[in-house]
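Annotated sample (chain length 282).
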Amino acid sequence: MWKKDIVSWKVHNVLCISIPFTWLVSKAEKLAYSHKGKVFVGGPGAILMKDTIDWAEVQETTPYNVLAMHNPLAVFTTRGCPRKCPFCAVPILEPEYIELDNWTPAPIVCDNNILACSNRHFKKVIDSLKCFDYVDFNQGLDCRLFSPWHASLLQSLKGVKIRFAFDHVSMEKNVSDAITLAKEKGFKDFGVYVLIGFKDTYEDALYRLETVRKWGIRPNPMRYQPLDSVRKDSFLSKEGGWTEKRMKDVMRYYSRLIWLEQVPFEEYSISKRNKSKGFGLL
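Output written by the structure step:
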């Protein structure tokens, strides 16, 4: 359901464009120049790159439910995040953590850190989601804040999917404890995002990815994208032993574990290397 692209609409003769990612700014610019009239742009991509935009008016707020235009099944109930992770755009886009008073309930919850909210708000959110046959906490839950109380309320929902994030090796115990608690509470459908390529090493990324597999979960590798990236997947750390081939191998393999579960990563990497050299596989 996600439209991972710009979305646009017209209000009379005004063109409005929402840009979710910085690397889509150039595409939005072409659309803007094709329009005979005023152009407003907004969204994370536009706000992060606003100093480079002189072809439209950048709007940081809007009366429209733009999230629903990207995915009508998605919702925010809070904005911002008290964590200030250096790889994340949220501290720039939404520096203040706030609980929304009103929202239209939807089954895909996109809050950046819903567990940082008050108990009153969290219970209100859970109650609003009980009408759905499935609920997906899409942005992940802060493993450092995940408690038995949260887990019990989440378990009152139908078809609930939760996710955690393993961004740095120092978080291993926090993530492990959260997963243990989730399993003890009977959760069956949950995942783990694993950030790779941000101030880590190739070996460190593999360790975290394989650790998640040892926990019985298929990891979801997330390649780091700089906050001002004009081309997706163009950044590669000059440190940590990363090469473009290693990055592509890691992303391809761990994104395809549903098919490659029985093939060790090292065997996959070697087979890809041999194929690139023109060797066939016996």
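Annotation: The chain has two domains: 7-58, 66-276.
Annotation: The mean pLDDT is 94.
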